[in-house]
UniProtKB/TrEMBL annotation, chains A, B:
Taxonomic lineage from the root: Bacteria, Pseudomonadati, Pseudomonadota, Alphaproteobacteria, Rhodospirillales
All residue ranges annotated as the Acyl-CoA dehydrogenase/oxidase N-terminal domain in the record: 79-157
Family: Belongs to the acyl-CoA dehydrogenase family.
Domain of life from the UniProt record: Bacteria
Acyl-CoA oxidase/dehydrogenase middle domain segment(s): 162-271
EC assignment: 1.3.99.41
Enzyme class, UniProt record, top EC level: oxidoreductase
Species per Swiss-Prot/TrEMBL record: Ferrovibrio terrae
Catalytic activity, as annotated: 3-(methylsulfanyl)propanoyl-CoA + oxidized [electron-transfer flavoprotein] + H(+) = 3-(methylsulfanyl)acryloyl-CoA + reduced [electron-transfer flavoprotein]
Domain Acetyl-CoA dehydrogenase-like C-terminal stretches: 466-592
Function: Involved in the assimilation of dimethylsulphoniopropionate (DMSP), an important compound in the fixation of carbon in marine phytoplankton, by mediating the conversion of 3-(methylthio)propanoyl-CoA (MMPA-CoA) to 3-(methylthio)acryloyl-CoA (MTA-CoA).
Matching PANTHER family: ACYL-COA DEHYDROGENASE (PTHR42803), BROAD-SPECIFICITY LINEAR ACYL-COA DEHYDROGENASE FADE5 (PTHR42803:SF1)
Cofactor names: FAD
Protein name stated in the entry: 3-methylmercaptopropionyl-CoA dehydrogenase
Keywords per UniProt: FAD, Flavoprotein, Oxidoreductase
C-alpha cells in the first residue's frame, strides 16, 4: 500500500526562505502566524493526515460511497476520521476567529490543502467544499446568515456544498432551469435538479449547507438572472438546534473513474426552503468567490496527486532491482541494480520533482498574494495582489491539474506492470487526479478565461502584475555570477517567447476571437512554464545564498540547484514549441466543417 | 453507451491509394489479396466487431473475469462471441493455408487488429495473444509441433499465451527462476511461477497453449540460459484428442486499472510437462519473434483506443449544446451552440484526428514492410524491410501507446464532467489504453532499445532505411507547387532536427551511454513526429492528386489536407523542444545521488 509523508522541509523552504511569509504575516496583522506556529501546523497536520486519513485512501477507493433510499454512507472509517479531524481543529485553520476559527493566513490553508489531498483526495473534498461555501457566505451572506451558519461550518460540524451543474448545463449556466419562487416570509422555494454535487449527501456531519444557483421567475434571461441561495439539509432553528428535514434529497450517486470515497450526488430540490445570499440576480458574482478559491484548491489537487505518486515511485525505484546501469554495475552485491540508476527512470522522477516543487512554490506565492489582496493596509497593494491572483488562477488550475495527471501517470509508469495493478495503489492516484482537469471549469475553459477575459482586462493590467516582477527579476539577475547563466538566461528566453505570444494572441484575437481561442491552450501552458521558471530561478537564488552562508542542509540546497537546472534543461524548452504553435494561427484548427471531422 | 464504426474509408485510402497494397500483394504472391477481398474483409470485419464484440466492451469492464478455485470465468457473452468469432474465421485471417488459415497479408491483420481493439480491447487480446504464439511456433517450432498445434491455434479452437514475467523479474529476464528439468523422453518438467499472463486461463477455448520461458539447470547464467517451452493446459494425444490436465494452474487473477475483460493470471507451473521450442538456451530469440509482432500490435492498441474515443467525443461535440461561439451564434434555432464550435474543443478533436490517421498510416506502412520482409523474392529487399521494421517497431509501440493514451484522455475531456462518469464509457477507454504503455516492454525500454540497440546496429544501417526514403522524398517534393510549401517544408525542418539529434545522441552516447539513455525518450518522440510528418506529407500528396483528378469524395481529400496542415502547424513544432532537450544533455538528469531525490 502506498504511503505519504508531508514534504515539510520543502514547504518551509518556500514559505520561510523564498516567500518570506513571516514578513507578510506581520504586515497583514496575522500575529499568531509566527514561523514556529506555521512549522507546528505543518508538522502536526502532516502527521495527522499520514496517520489518520492516508490509510483510508484505498479503503475509500475500494468501497466507495453507498446510496440507499436517499441515504449515503461513506466508506468504512471516514466518519470516525472526520470526527477526529474536526476535533483537532483542522477545518477551522483559516476561518475567522469571530466564528471560532484560528484566523491563520490562507497561504497556510493552501499548504494544508496539498497535504490533505495527497493523503486522501476524496476525503479532503468534504472539508474542502465546506471551506469554499464558508468563504462565499462570509463575503456575501448577511450578518444574520453568517452568525447562524458560519460557526458550525468553521468547526466542520456542518459541511457545505456548491450546486451549479444541471443535466443540460455545466459550463453554460445561463441555460439553468432550477427555479426559486419568492415567499411571503422572505424565503424562497427552490425546485430543480442539480448533478455532480460533490459531498452533496453523506453521513459524516449532522447538517449540510447547500449553496444553490437558481433563477427567480421573471428575472433577466440567461446568466444575468441567476441568484445564489442557501438551502440547509435540515432547517436550523433560531436557537441553533436542528429542525425539520428540508425538501432536498439525494436521487442517486455517480459511478466514477475515481474519488470513489467522495459522494457525487444528484440532488433533487422539491420546494426546498432557501434564502437569498447576496443580491438578487447577482448569484454568479457570489459564486465566483467560491469558484476562484476552489480553482486554486483544485490546482493544488493536481499537485497533490503528483507528489504522493512521486514519493511512492521513488521508493519503488530504489527498491526494485532490475537490469544493470548502462555505464557499469552500481550494486555488485545485488542480483541487479535498483532501477533508479536507469536514465529514463530518472527522467520521469526528475520531471515530477521539478513539477511538484515548482508548482508548490507557485501555489504558495498565489496564496500569499491572496492574503495580501484580502488584508493589506494599502489599497493599491491589495488591488495589485487581487489582479495577480486573478491572472494566475486559471493557469494554476489548468496547468497544475493537467501536468499533475501526467506526472501521476509517469509515477505509475515507474512501477512497470505493477503500476497497473490496483493493490499497489498507483493507478488510483491517476484516476483520482483525472477529475481535477474537469471540475471547477474544465481546463479548456480556464484557458479561454485566461486569454478571453483576464488578458484583455484593463488593457493588460492583470498581465502586467505578473510580467513586471518577472521582467524586473531578469534585468536584475541576468548578470548575476551565481544564477545568471544557468537559471536566469533560460528564463529570459522563455519570457521573451511569452511576450511575443502575448502580442500575437492579443493582436490576432482582436480581429478574430477564434485566433485567441485556438491559441489559448498553448498560451496557458507557455505562461505556466514561464511562471514555474520564475519560481525555479528564485529558488535557485535562495539555494545559492544558503550554500554561500554555509550551515543548514547542504544536500537539500544542492538538490534544489540540480532540479532547477533540470527544469531549465528539460522542461522549459517546450516554450519554443508552444510559441510556434501559437504563431501558426487558428486556420487549420477552425477550417473543417463539423460534418467533415 | 459508446459506439464504434470501423474507419473503412481511411483504411482504404491508406492501403490502396497511399501504400498501393495491391502492387505489393501481387509481388509477394498474395494472389487472394485483391482490392475487392481486402475491402470485403475490412467491411465484414468492421461490421462483425461493431455488432458482436463492441457491445460487450462495457459488460467486460463491469463484470471483469472471475477466479474461483483455479477456474476463470470470462464476462457474460464473451464465450459466445468468441465462438462466433472463430466460426467466422477471424482468427485465421493471416495464418498459413497449410494450417487452415486464409493466408492473407500481415498488413491486413494489422488493420483488423486495430478494428478489433477499438471494438473491445480486452476481448481482442485473447485472439491477439494466440496469434503471437502461433507466429513464434511457426518460426521456431519443429514440424511435428507445428502439425500438432498450429491448426487449432489458427482456427482459434485453442488459444495461446506468452509467459515471461515473474514476481521479481519483468524487464530483466536474466533473473528468471522458473526451471525446466529434462526428462528421458525428451520432454521437460517445468516448475515456477509466472505473473501478468494475459489470457492465461479462461473458459473460452478447450485448450490453452502456453509458451513459457524457463532455465534448464546447468545452463549459462542469466539471459543466455533461457529456453522456450511449449506447455499445453491439457495434454494433446497423438490423434489430436485432449488428454490429462497438465501441471499448470491459475493461482489468482489480478485486479487491474482496466482491460477487466481479459484475465491477467498468476500461473503456477508444478512439474508441468513441456517441450523445447527451437534451440536450447536460445529462448529469447524465439520469444523476440513473438515480442516484435506483439509490440506492433500493442502500438495499434494505443491507436485503437484513441480512435474509438475520438468517434464518441465527436458525436458528443456535435450533440452537446453549451455556450455560444466566440465569433457569433452558429445555431440560433437552438438554446446554445454545439460545443464543436469552440476552438479548444476543435484543438482536441483535430489533435486526436491527426494522431489516429497519421498513426494508422504509419502502422500500415510498417505492416507492408513486415510482409515484404517475410515474402519478397529479392533477399536484399527483404533485408531492407526487416531493418526498417526493426527500426520502426520500438517507436510505433511507445509513441502510439503514449500518445494514444493522451488522446483518449483528451476525448474524455471533451465530455466535461460526463467523461468522468462510468456510464458514458469514456473513462474506460483511458483505463484500457493505459496498459499498452507498460506491457510488451515498458515505453522507456522501447526508447532504450531504439537508441541503444537499433540506432547503432550496422553503424546506422537500420536508421538509414528510414532516413533515406524520407530524405529522397523531401528532395523530390520540396519545390512541388502542390505540397512543397505547406507540407514538405515543415517536414524538412523537423527532419533536420532529427538528423542533428541523431548525431548528438550517437556521438555523446559513444563517450557516455547515459547521454544516449537520458536522451532516448525525447529522441523516440522526435523520430515519431518526423515519421508521422512523412506519412502526412505523403497522404497530402495523394489527396492533392485525387482532387486534381476530380471525382471521388472531394470532402474526404480536402479534410485530409486540412488535417495534414493541422499536424504540421500544431503538432510537428514539438520537435524543436525535443531537440533542445536532447542538446541540453544528461547532466541534470543523472547528477543527483539516489538519496537526494
Amino acid at each position: 500500500m502506498p504511503s505519504y509523508t508531508a514534504p515539510i522541509k520543502d514547504f518551509q523552504f518556500v514559505l520561510h526562505d523564498v516567500l518570506q511569509m513571516e514578513k507578510m504575516s506581520n504586515q497583514l496583522g496575522f500575529t499568531d502566524a509566527s514561523r514556529d506556529v506555521v512549522d507546528a501546523v505543518l508538522e502536526e497536520g502532516g502527521k495527522f493526515m499520514s496517520e489518520v486519513t492516508a490509510p483510508l485512501n484505498r479503503v475509500g477507493d475500494l468501497e466507495g460511497c453507498k446510496w440507499e433510499n436517499g441515504v449515503v454512507t461513506t466508506p468504512t472509517g471516514f466518519k470516525e476520521a472526520y470526527e477526529k479531524y474536526c476535533e483537532a481543529g483542522w477545518g477551522a485553520l483559516t476561518a475567522e476567529e469571530k466564528y471560532g476559527g484560528q484566523g491563520l493566513p490562507h497561504v497556510l490553508g493552501i499548504a494544508m490543502a496539498e497535504i490533505q489531498s495527497s493523503a486522501n483526495m476524496a476525503f479532503a473534498m468534504y472539508p474542502g467544499l465546506t471551506h469554499g461555501a464558508y468563504e462565499a457566505l462570509l463575503r456575501h451572506g448577511s450578518e444574520e446568515q453568517k452568525d447562524k451558519y458560519l460557526p458550525n461550518m468553521a468547526s466542520g460540524k456542518w459541511t457545505g456544498t456548491m450546486n451549479l451543474t444541471e443535466p443540460h448545463c455545466g459550463t453554460d449556466l445561463g441555460l439553468m432551469r432550477t427555479k426559486a419562487e419568492p415567499q411571503a416570509d422572505g424565503s424562497y422555494l427552490i425546485t430543480g435538479t442539480k448533478i455532480f454535487i460533490s459531498a452533496g449527501e453523506h453521513d459524516m456531519a449532522e447538517n449540510i449547507i447547500h449553496l444553490v444557483l437558481a433563477k427567480i421567475p421573471g428575472g433577466p434571461e440567461g446568466i444575468k438572472g441567476v441568484s445564489l441561495f442557501l438551502v440547509p439539509k435540515f432547517m436550523v432553528n433560531d436557537d441553533g438546534s436542528l429542525g425539520a428535514r428540508n425538501g432536498v434529497s439525494c436521487g442517486s450517486i455517480e459511478h466514477k473513474m475515481g474519488i470513489h470515497g467522495n459522494s457525487t450526488c444528484v440532488l433533487n430540490y422539491d420546494n426546498a426552503k432557501g434564502w437569498l445570499v447576496g443580491q438578487m440576480h447577482k448569484g454568479m458574482q457570489a459564486m465566483f468567490v467560491m469558484m476562484n478559491a476552489a480553482r486554486l484548491g483544485v490546482g493544488v489537487q493536481g499537485l497533490s496527486q503528483a507528489e504522493v505518486a512521486y514519493q511512492n515511485a521513488l521508493t519503488y525505484a530504489n527498491d526494485r532491482l532490475q537490469g544493470r546501469s548502462i555505464t557499469g554495475t552500481k550494486a555488485p552485491e545485488k542480483p541487479a541494480d535498483p532501477i533508479i540508476v536507469h536514465p529514463d527512470i530518472r527522467r520521469m522522477l526528475m520531471t515530477i520533482k521539478a513539477f511538484t516543487e515548482g508548482s508548490r512554490a507557485l501555489a504558495l506565492w498565489t496564496g500569499i498574494e491572496l492574503d495580501i489582496a484580502a488584508k493589506h493596509p494599502d489599497e493599491q497593494r491589495r488591488q495589485e495582489a487581487d489582479d495577480l491572483v486573478a491572472f494566475l488562477t486559471p493557469m494554476v488550475k489548468a496547468y497544475m491539474t493537467d501536468y499533475g495527471y501526467q506526472c501521476a501517470t509517469m509515477a505509475q509508469q515507474v512501477y512497470g506492470g505493477h503500476g497497473y495493478i490496483a493493490e499497489w495503489g498507483m493507478e488510483q492516484f491517476v484516476r483520482d487526479a483525472r477529475i481535477a482537469m474537469i471540475y471547477e471549469g474544465a481546463n479548456g475553459i480556464q484557458a479561454l478565461d485566461l486569454v478571453g477575459r483576464k488578458l484583455p482586462t484593463g488593457i493588460g493590467r492583470l498581465a502586467r502584475r505578473f510580467f513586471h516582477p518577472v521582467s524586473a527579476f531578469i534585468e536584475d539577475k541576468m548578470m548575476d555570477p551565481g544564477i545568471g547563466k544557468d537559471y536566469v538566461m533560460p528564463l529570459a528566453k522563455a519570457f521573451a517567447r511569452l511576450q511575443t505570444a502575448t502580442a500575437v494572441v492579443s493582436e490576432r484575437g482582436m480581429k478574430n476571437p477564434d485566433e485567441a481561442g485556438a491559441a489559448s491552450w498553448d498560451y496557458l501552458n507557455l505562461f505556466a512554464l514561464v511562471a514555474l521558471g520564475f519560481m525555479w530561478a528564485r529558488m535557485a537564488e535562495v539555494a545559492k545564498q544558503k550554500l554561500a552562508e554555509g550551515g543548514g542542509d547542504k544536500d537539500f540546497y544542492e538538490t534544489k540547484l540540480v532540479t532547477a537546472r533540470f527544469f531549465m534543461d528539460r522542461m522549459l524548452p517546450d516554450t519554443a514549441a508552444q510559441l510556434a504553435k501559437i504563431q501558426a494561427g487558428a486556420e487549420s484548427t477552425m477550417m473543417l466543417k463539423a460534418a467533415n471531422f
